Amino acid sequence: MVQIMVQMMFKPGLRTVLLLAACAALLSACAANNRPLQLITGAGQVYPAQALEQGIEGAVTVRYDVNVAGEVVAAEVIRSEPAGVFDEAALQAVRSWRFNPPVRDGVKQPARDLQSTLTFKLGETDAYDNY
């Protein structure tokens, strides 16, 4: 339909038709390309008040999957130091993440067995807070 409208407006020559055909081919090729998993949004971890008050630092490694809708599913703590202190904060943060799922041969795919380590360190702030 776009091509018909362009033809009616411009009465294109051969070069214009070839250019439109090349653009259409390029756009269809882009749609079929493979794409890796891409994080698009999500909350950062919230430092637990009790750990903050007690000056406790630590890290939590979470294993999770991403479904074809880009949602985190089956999130579980696989390692935490100190154990249990930051687990729930880490799980809440990871569950808030949203992704563009990976695409293989033009078809969205789930991503399985991903791991992320969230670090809880006192005194660290977002470097961009003042911008």
How many separate domains?
2
Number of helices: 4
Mean pLDDT figure: 81
Characterize the main sheet. Answer: 3 strands, antiparallel
Report on the architecture of this protein.
There is one protein chain. The chain is α+β, with helices and mostly antiparallel strands and 131 residues long. It has 2 domains: 31 residues, no CATH class; 83 residues, TonB (TolA/TonB C-terminal domain), CATH 3.30.2420. Helix content is 34%, strand content 31%. The strands form 3 sheets. Strands 3-2-7 form a 3-stranded antiparallel β-sheet, covered by helices on one side. Strands 1-4 form a two-stranded antiparallel sheet. The two termini are 45 Å apart.
Give me the secondary-structure topology.
Elements: H1 2-10, H2 14-32, E1 38-41, H3 49-54, E2 58-66, E3 72-81, H4 87-96, E4 98-100, E5 103-104, E6 107-108, E7 111-120
Antiparallel strand pairs: 1-4, 2-3, 2-7, 5-6
Key traits:
single chain, 131 residues, alpha+beta, TolA/TonB C-terminal domain, 2 domains, three-stranded antiparallel β-sheet, two-stranded antiparallel sheet, 4 helices, 34% helix, 31% strand
Outline of the structure:
The chain is an alpha+beta fold and 131 residues long. The chain has helices spanning 2-10, 14-32, 49-54, 87-96; strands spanning 38-41, 58-66, 72-81, 98-100, 103-104, 107-108, 111-120. It has two domains: 2-32, no CATH class; 38-120, TolA/TonB C-terminal domain (2-Layer Sandwich).
